């Protein structure tokens, strides 16, 4: 294989002095500052609206608006009765290139619905935000439209979203109580919320 050697350009004497280069940088920064100050002032009095001025978002107090197609943290959509739309078909788990979705499907008590997810986890620590899970879902049961982008956590476990956090994106760990409507009952066992039928068979 041919190797191309790239030689770094030598600095000129003018560049080696550094002070002129610092002056050039300050000149550019000052030009942007003056231009934006002028345009924002003009916009205030209704002038030059066709010329766009730079805008600084005071994140996190002022979140930046996202494009319609932006992929943010996942959520599971729900039916009118509050139960998950997911039918546990595993298509999203199968298509996921990062293998970060774990689903355990259970028989749904309603004969018109084949299955439902007893367990549905997504490990955001390894998710690549490709959106394939959303594309593959035949039920529109999973979406990436929560607008949540601050998914940083202090441990790998906190990066793993369970069905509670996915059905209600406002929930964050530790989740001690389940107020969501599932076809099964949730109860706390060994610090984890688990689903069970009639309080006897543990499926979570
Ligand atoms: S966005 Fe991609 S990597 Fe993340 S869970 Fe969905 S399919 Fe997997
Ligand atoms: S979220 Fe959609 S694709 Fe994934 S298991 Fe549920 S119904 Fe199937």
What does this structure look like?
The protein has helices spanning 13-16, 19-44, 91-95, 132-136, 163-167, and strands at 75-76, 101-107, 115-123, 142-143, 160-161, 185-189, 192-197, 201-202. The protein is of the alpha+beta class and 204 residues long. The protein has 2 domains: 13-44; 75-194, Alpha-Beta Plaits (2-Layer Sandwich), CATH 3.30.70.3270. The strands form 3 sheets. Strands 2-3-5 form a 3-stranded antiparallel beta sheet. Strands 6-7-8 form a 3-stranded antiparallel beta sheet, with no helix packed on it. A hairpin with a 3-residue loop joins strand 7 and strand 8. Residues 198-204 have low confidence and may be disordered. The protein binds iron/sulfur cluster (2 copies). Residues 96-98, 100-101, 122, 127-133 line the site of one iron/sulfur cluster.
Please report the number of helical segments. Answer: 5
- Ions and ligands: iron/sulfur cluster
Share of helix, binned? 10-25%
The average pLDDT score comes to: 88
Strand residue content? 15-25%
Q: What is the number of E strands?
A: 8
